[in-house]
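Thread title: Can someone regenerate the structure for this chain?

I was given the following input by a collaborator and told the matching structure tokens would be attached. They weren't. Posting the sequence so someone can regenerate them.
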Amino acid sequence: MPYIKSIPIRSTVNRSIAYIANKDKTDDLLYVSGLNCSAVPTIAYSEMKLVFEEYSKYKFNEAISMNEKTPIKAIHFIQSFHPNDPVTAELAHSIAKEWAVKSFGDDRQMIVSTHLDKGHIHSHIIINTYSISGKKFNDNQTTLEAVRNLSDTVCMHYGIQPILKNENRKSHSLKYNEWDSKKKGASWKQQI
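Best answer:
Regenerated them for you:
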């Protein structure tokens, strides 16, 4: 039952790539792959920089701006498996690569790395926000839900069951005044 999480990267793409391609975490880089870019961190960074700057009006190594919104340059996804899942490092890495291509397309630059240093196997995927053909990937709740569903589909193909979702629970947010009334014990909805 893999869990997917995404982290937008507005700066330090080079450090994020270096972190996921750490030889101590990946069995001496055995479980590091580059899709449409090199698996060598410094080269992958340069290749992603070229594509990003070709299609974006921003610099890839631009620092976070305090005056205006800094663009997301890359997105770091983590696909974590439960310790009880029947997953080997090889299988987790294969699943991560297949899932990445199905989720983000076959013309996007991605570094896929599977870490073995924790009590559970997990894969890191860093994608360039711009594809080689110039299409931008926007990370939001809708796209995150879509990539989670694709992860579940790929994992089920390999016999790994997805996380069960509680279909009866409805998720909705309260408006501030409703939340404040509920907190103070003055909510007419709570009294009913």
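DSSP finds six helices and five strands in the chain.
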